[in-house]
Structures are given as structure tokens and as C-alpha cells.
Amino acid sequence: MGFPFSLLCDLLSSLDENRLVKPTSTATKTRPDSRTIAQWFTHYGSRIHCADTDRLALLSCMFPEKRVDRVYWLQATSLARVIGRCLGLGSSRLSELNRWQKAGGPDLGQCVEDVMRQAENYVPHDQEVTVEELDRAMGLIASRCRFSGPDVRRQRTAVDVDACLSPLYRRLCSRDAKWFTRMILKSYSPVVLPSKYTLERFHFLLPHLLQFQDTFSGALNMLISEPMNHFPAHPDPKLATNLCSIALEHLSPQIGIKIGRPEYYKARSIRHCHQMAKGRRISVERKYDGEYCQIHVDLRHSKRPVQIFSKSGKDSTEDRDGIIPILEESLAMRTAQCKFTHRCILEGELVVWSDKHGGVAGFHKLRKFLSRSGSYIGIDQDSP
């Protein structure tokens, strides 16, 4: 059966209603969003963790912005045209749909709800759209875009966007179509799900696992491994601390899955920095004005021993393969001088070195050497 998308829309709609409550002084103490999220997970927890639910699909629908490996090539303008065709809208209803283009008007999602409410779809209970169906459709649409991650593009099939979305929109009520539209645009704004708290309510270990494997699929695979597959999703706080210690003994980074970055806090001064450290031992590193990258090396893979991940977590090896020979030389890979046996993970900053000035060139010079899915963006007016 799967997990009905309407249940997720219930949560999003409740959070949307909370926006009217938040400005009050009472809401500061009651934290309505946290209460709403906790109640929703308590009510549907057993259904979320049952075998019929694809938890990766559910998380992908909850946090569409975190699927950086998926690019749909659909902005509001093009998506509005697709929706108009999917719903078979006439000229008058099309003009209502396009009210999102007016300054100060509603967003596209709200316009979709307003238009569809005029002729509400009747959806039988056994034909409700599930998050699994939506996730499958979005994966197919993303596979056709060259800006998507390599694993997504490998699933490429001859997919027509209208044919893919039309059956879904016709089986959604107006409210759910609003949230689906916002999901495609990767923003539920004005609703914002508090990421850390929501993930904790999903499973108490999930935020911690994402620090080791910064993808939903990687973290979920760890959850179903021994011994974590025996842990309850929401133990009491004391037991949770003990279970975290047990889980830590079984966690290790995986080559090919980006490691999550630690949280960073900005200090206003050296004194403030010292206060934030609170007597703990800290490390100091030189900051270069470059582009962050995380490099995974596995010498057991003869065809593709190096993978390079960008700050967002996207596999950007194809765009940055020019630095691989330099990496192989500096790491002395496959030689007696190599400092590791099979695998290693490195973090660094990609910079441009200027022989003319004998130093690191400005950040803006990077775009002349780093492509984005094969395209060099914003260099037409640059000097040689």
C-alpha cells in the first residue's frame, strides 16, 4: 500500500496553521511546531516503520531540498505550464493559475490549490497517492537532467514530464496538490520543517548517522544493520544515551558516501571564540578562499579510485577530474611511499594558483576552471 502523501500533507498543513499562533506570547512557551511534529510521529510512528513504507521515499518527500542529487529542470514558470496541461485548464483558469507571477501575490502552490478547489478531484480511499509513487516519479524526472547526480542519471529512461505528473495531479485533492507543487520546487515555504527535531522524531539515531553518511539512503542502511536494527525508534532519554554509545562502536565512514560536516558557528571576536570553546581542545586550520571538496580514494577500484564530493554532497567527480592526476601524485598512490593501504577520505579547498602573482588567485577565478555538469557558468564576460 505504501504511505499516503495526504498524511504528510496533514503535518505540513498543521505547521502552516501554526504560523498564525507563533506571534503570540503563549506560543513562545508551548512551541507549537514541536508539539505538532511530536504528535504526528506518535500517531503514525508504527506505520512509518512498518515494512510496507519506503522510508527513503518518505524522507525524500519530507525534505526535498536535501536531495541534491536530483535536479528536475522545473522552475515555477515551466512547472506552471506543465500543471496547466496536466489539469486541462482553460484560458480563464490558466490566468488564475498564473497569479503567482504578480508581485505580492500567492505562490504557485497556493494558486494550484485555488484553481483545483473549483473542481475538486474525488479520490477513492484505495487510490490515494503515496509518497512512494511521488518519489518514483521525481526520480524518473530527475534522471533526464544532466545536472542530477551520476547515480540518478544512470536510471535514465524516456520519460515525458506531462505523462509522469498528470496521473498524480489528477489523483490529488487541491490541498495535497499545493504541497506536491512546492515539493517539486524543493521548498515548502512558508512552512519550514525543523530539520534536527523532525529527524530525531523519525528515529533518535538518524541525525547522528547523517554525520557519518550524509545521505538518507546511507543513514537508513545503517539503521537496518546490526545491532541498530534492534533499537527502538524513540527510547527514553537515559536508554538513548546508552544506545548511542553502543551504536558508535559500529559506525564507520563509507567510501562513496559523503561524510556529514560538523556544525559551524561564527564568533564575533577572539574573546567570543574562546568563550565558545569553553576550555575544550580545538584545532586551528588555515582558511583558503576556495571551494570545499571531500575526496574519497579506494585503490581497490581500478576504474574509478577517486570520487570528489562538493559541499552540498553531490558527486562532482566528472567536473573536477582535472585535479585527479595531481591527487595521485601528491598522495603517491600505488607506490611504496603511499601513506595508506587501500582507502582514505580527505577534505580540502579547491583553489586556483597564480604563477604570475605567486599565490592563490581570487575565488571568482574558480569558475573558469570548474564546470557545472559540463557547463562553465558566468565566464562569458570574464577577462582572459
From TrEMBL:
The keyword Nucleotide-binding applies. The keyword Transport does not apply. GO terms for molecular function: ATP binding; DNA binding; DNA ligase (ATP) activity. Residues 4-187 form the DNA ligase ATP-dependent N-terminal domain. InterPro entries: DNA_ligase_ATP-dep_cent, DNA_ligase_ATP-dep_N, DNA_ligase_N_sf, LIG4. This is ATP-dependent DNA ligase family profile domain-containing protein. Belongs to the ATP-dependent DNA ligase family. It holds the Pfam family DNA_ligase_A_N. Keywords: ATP-binding, Ligase, Nucleotide-binding, Nucleus. One of its GO terms (biological process) is DNA recombination. It comes from Penicillium capsulatum.
